[in-house]
Specification:
D-amino Acid Aminotransferase, Chain A, domain 1, alpha+beta, 6-stranded antiparallel β-sheet, 8 helices, binds pyridoxal-5'-phosphate
Length: about 280
């Protein structure tokens, strides 16, 4: 099993992270998760452009281009004979004596990537999942895919401890996003989802979903929606790289719609499947 460690492909057992890596001590860095289907990366360019942008937003100028990262990740997929799974990658600001201010710019970023075999979540896609509601207590730069995930981790843990799959977060009355996904609702045939702003991560799955809906004539409204809108929605679903388009059939104790995956959600799943197939084959 091989990993990328500071630009080289090496055995995982040989990759050693320094205890003063700023990713480890401060969560000072950015990451991405990319899906691999049939040994091909799905929406790789979008993910790699986003990690460059996330890095820029925290004052890190990555030294890799999209093309260079793509080539390296493709080599890793081949080396690990990965068919269906995910790539996790992260850049931290690097290794330096622990001190809050950024180290000087000659400190190299730490770049790590590895692969994992993961099957598509077929049962969840088919049957849907349950969610809880949770006040969004995170910081105000949620558009950055930063290594600081404590708010997200705590929200997810609360969901899991209650037998649920996801925590739908809200700032007061406004629904923002899941702990590791974006949230959309369907009301009277229209899809509503929070606009890309500092309050959510602009998911690559979310963007692809909007693209396929618009092409198929499903109206999409990117506007904040309320807890009341959520509670009275016909359909609710989450979207993310690993969970794809997953129906939400129950929120807290209340069933969504008929308590089964909705018609439009299923249609969007089909459109999303077609997008995967056209990019990665079937
Ligand atoms: N929002 C948060 C907080 C996430 O962690 C994720 C993905 O893990 C998403 C949204 C969905 O983003 P994407 O579709 O790019 O995976």
């Amino acid at each position: 099993n091989y990993v990328i460690f500071n630009g080289n492909i090496i055995e995982r057992s040989e990759a050693n992270v320094d205890i003063e890596d700023r990713g480890y001590q401060f969560g000072d860095g950015v990451y991405e998760v990319i899906r691999v289907y049939n040994s091909k990366m799905f929406t790789a360019t979008e993910h790699l452009e986003r990690i460059i942008l996330s890095a820029k937003k925290i004052g890190m100028e990555l030294t890799y281009t999209v093309k260079e990262m793509k080539e390296l990740l493709t080599q890793l997929i081949t080396k690990n004979s990965l068919e269906h799974g995910t790539i996790y990658m992260q850049f931290s600001r690097g290794v330096a004596p622990r001190n809050h201010p950024y180290p000087t710019s000659d400190v190299a970023h730490s770049f790590v990537a590895y692969t994992k075999e993961v099957a598509r979540p077929l049962a969840n896609l088919e049957n849907g999942v349950k969610a809880i509601l949770k006040e969004d207590i995170r910081w105000l730069l949620c558009d950055i895919k930063s290594l600081n995930l404590l708010g997200n981790v705590m929200a997810k843990q609360e969901a899991v401890s209650k037998g649920c799959y996801e925590a739908i977060q809200h700032r007061g009355e406004v629904v923002t996003e899941g702990s590791s996904s974006n949230i959309s609702i369907i009301k009277d045939g229209t899809l509503y989802t929070h606009p890309a702003s500092n309050l959510i991560l602009n998911g690559i799955t979310r963007r692809k979903m909007i693209e396929v809906c618009e092409k198929d004539g499903i109206p999409v409204v990117e506007e904040p929606f309320s807890l009341n809108d959520l509670n009275t929605a016909d359909e609710v679903f989450l979207s993310s790289t690993t969970s794809e388009i997953t129906p939400i059939i129950q929120i807290n104790e209340k069933q969504v719609g008929e308590g089964v995956p909705g018609v439009l959600t299923k249609r969007i799943q089909g459109l999303f499947d077609a997008a995967i197939e056209s990019e990665c084959g079937s």
